[in-house]
Design a protein that fits this description.
Blueprint: H1 4-26, H2 31-38, H3 42-49, H4 57-60, H5 63-78, H6 83-97, H7 103-111, H8 130-149, E1 165-168, E2 178-180, E3 186-188, E4 191-193, E5 199-200, H9 205-215, E6 222-227, H10 230-238, E7 243-245, H11 252-262, E8 268-271, E9 280-285, H12 288-296
Parallel strand pairs: 7-8
Antiparallel strand pairs: 1-2, 1-6, 2-5, 3-4, 6-9, 8-9
Helix pairs in contact: 1-2, 1-5, 1-7, 2-3, 5-6, 6-8, 8-12, 9-11
Length: 299
Amino acid sequence: MRFVEEIVVDEFLPTVRSLLAGALRERGLTQSEVANVLGISQSAVSKYAHGDVTVNERVATDDRVEALVEELADGLAAGDVRPVRALIEIEVLIRELEQGGDLLAQLHEEAVPELADHGASFRVHDPESDLRTSERVLSSLRRGLRLLENASGFAGLIPAVGSNLVACTPDADDIDDVAGVPGRIFDVKGKATVPADPEFGVSEHVATVLLAARRHDVDAAAAINIRYDPKLLAELTERGHVTAEFDEADDVPSSVGAALEDEPDATVLYQTGGMGIEPLIYLLGPDAETIADTTRSLL
């Protein structure tokens, strides 16, 4: 009797760890850094690097395994993907490959031929888990933030109250479903400064605008606030964006909703300020990277 988990432990994981260790080394990480990212010892990394670990060629040459290793290696090396997301993505792939007829199921059936008569599925995890979804949002947000940090002149678009780039889960219902930068992004001596790693539930202001827009059928999952300037609005309009003005002195969700009833295709919302209220522009988009690209195009 041999369980599919034994196939995973004895053949799949050593192969994936070996591929991932090699890919991370190719991207410039030291053995110590690779060991830290993968949660293994430096001696284990050395064994992987010198081919002292048996690799299952069928696993190593599977298109999905190769693609995931490259994606995770890029993200881990750049800092966009945390080890916990890498763990989740590998776990999800394992569950997909365990389904009847797929790679791990085939290897299991070869080890236990009696299983071939049943065609049973071994799927036990949900690939669309909340944790996986949240980690994907955070990864996208980190990539968008890095684009902005490296954009020359972005600090000039940050308003006095600070900017925040936010992104939400597909079924976002409240602020806890929206991730942003704790403390917002500020201009510090002409340089955009992101004070902390993004988290969920830390942006009230920009998150409220994004959620209000989504509740009025705007197809957006990310947003950013930048300083108000009529020239910026004109440039955005020239590039095909639809703009809509709302009154932030009133109830924001209601005011945003009223503005979108007049301009349902709006991807840019703005308010011109008032007593104690700084005028701002809000850009809406499908993801954090797209918002960052749109923002950089204004520089």
